Amino acid sequence: MKLLLIEDEQELANSIQRYLTGNSFVCEWANNAKTAIDKISIYAYDCILLDLMLPDGNGFEILKELKRQNKTEGVIIISAKETLETRIEGFNLGADDYLTKPFHLSELLVRIQALIRRKNFKGNNLVAFNEIEIDLLSKAVKVNTKKIGITKKEIDLLLYLIGNENRVLSKSAIAEHLSGDMADMLDNHDFVYAHIKNLKNKLKEAGCSDYIKTVYGLGYKWQND
Amino acid sequence: MTKKLLHKTSRVYLLFSAVLLIVSAPLFYYITERLYIEETDETLILHKNEFVKYSLPTLKTADIQNWNKYNRNIKIEPFKNSGKDTIFYNSYYDALDAEIEPYRELNSSILIEGNPYTYSARINLVEKEDLMKSIAILFLIIISLLLIGLFVITKRLSINLWKPFYETLNQIEKFEIDKSNHPKFSETNIEEFNRLNNSIEKLIKKNTSIYHSQREFVENAAHELQTPLAVFQAKIDTLIQNTDFTQEQYKMLSSLNDSVSRLNRLNKNLLLLSKIENDIYTEKQTINLKEAIEKHFDFFTEQAKAKNLIIKTEMKEAVAVKSNPVLAEILISNLFLNAIRHNVGNGQVLVTLSNHSLTFSNTGQSQTLIADKLFNRFSKSNPSEQGNGLGLAIIKKIADLNNWKISYSFENNFHSFSVAF
After folding, report:
1. Domains observed in chain B
2. Distance, in angstroms, between B385 CA and closest chain A CA?
3. Chain A: nearest CA to B284, how far in angstroms?
4. Does one domain contain both A75 and A94?
5. Which of B227, B275, B280 sits opposite A80 (nearest CB)?
6. Between residues A23 and A194, which one has the greater pLDDT?
7. CATH code, domain carrying A181
8. What is the predicted pLDDT for the residue at B348?
9. What pLDDT score does B150 carry?
10. Do the beta carbons of residue B343 and residue B305 sit within 8 Å?
11. What is the pLDDT of residues B281-294, one digit of tens each?
12. Which residues on A lie below 8 Å from B391 (Cβ)?
């Protein structure tokens, strides 16, 4: 999978590149609009991460350019600017998702995965991990082909964990992912523990290996040993 | 005690008049009476002198009886052994009017044909009571007329004089620094009021510009912080992927991580506040409050579970309000999470929705919160709490924007935040 990161803040770009590389992703970086448009014209990408404020132009210009070239790449806007207007304009110009800075890299990763899944959707929409199989359409989870009872939130959590395989996920990152818009008002992340515990128990009962590891003091990690 | 300007002046006038009345009426009575008595005495003496000069030389002893018969007020009586002329008060019964009348009387010794007699002349006086009554009535009438006149004149005059002042007052009362309805003062022909208007205008202009630049500063600062915060967050997310940390380092990372996520929330809430202030969320819709509360009920229940709280609801169906939907949702979530956050283990949350109010009550600390600063930014009732001190400020802003009233009360160990709409 090939990604293009269009972001002028070098430090942030480095971290994003580093986090994404290795998840069967190759992440290229353009730090201005001109380079970005050059790259888009030559190569095909699975997903483009687009910052709206660039030194030589507005990110919306790149969206327009994509349209002009009839490109169908999925685009996730990553921007510090967050007003309803910019969101709507972004979506109208063909963006698929909008992530406001600051964000967790783990969140960005699952958003990219979800976008690519949607784009490549061919009749089945399954996420599989060893003995676990998640059907995103019917919201069902099977362990060793046996269906288990699981809530929507737990599926969300499971996808998030699997998507960030082998990465340490801080409690706050998980909490923010699970609480969505409500995250800004939330200052207690204890509910994450309850969710992790429930998911762990359900998977264990179904005979699944214990992939969820606790990282001391920090959070959790989905680890395939 | 505050009173209207006009009342104050009228009251002073009234008081002054009353004092004047009380002091001057007896004085007037006293002086009048003295003048009257003096005049009466002079008349008595004049009559006596006339009698001595014209009547006495021709008077015979035999005429005395006739004299007394036809003179009512000047009598010649047997000698009463009074050497000098004496003037004194005396009372006589008036058979016709059947009352006792006061008189001033002069007694003098005279000689008629060598025999001593007493000359006695008297003048009927006005009764004291009558005099006093007349004076009092006269005074009352004068003072009432004076007062009414003064009152009407001052009122007419004041209303005209103070008109620009009241106009200015109305304008200032309507003025709100965070709204764009700046007062426009009209020119007056009174120098002081023009000065007042000019200084208020200057004051408002200056304050508004300070307010705006401060608001801009908060917004810009929050915006500019987004990028470094994003870098900070990304670096920590990357850093924690290393596997060879000691326990001590994990602890540090964990607290760094908590701090950065707190910073993020703080910044986002500041941005939200400035967005509300900048009238981003003006579009209003009709919102069914019960539906809006139930929309995220699972989420709140989940949050409450960590503290083992019981959530009770008493909600009327079909309570509709006009508000921006995003803001209404933020208001509800903030109130709900507030009731959960400041709760105690095994406590309760009560959600009451009636036709005109929405109340969130919760168990919590046993003392009442200090209410006056509660809705200010960064005023925390408990400094050790994790909250960022913006939640209630946001709630207040949203309530203000919708012209709703937010209030806090503490009763029966329940802290209640109520929104009246």
Report:
1. 5-131 (no CATH), 192-277 (1.10.287.130), 285-420 (3.30.565.10)
2. 10
3. 15
4. yes
5. B227
6. A194
7. 1.10.10.10
8. 93
9. 81
10. no
11. 888 899 999 999 99
12. 185
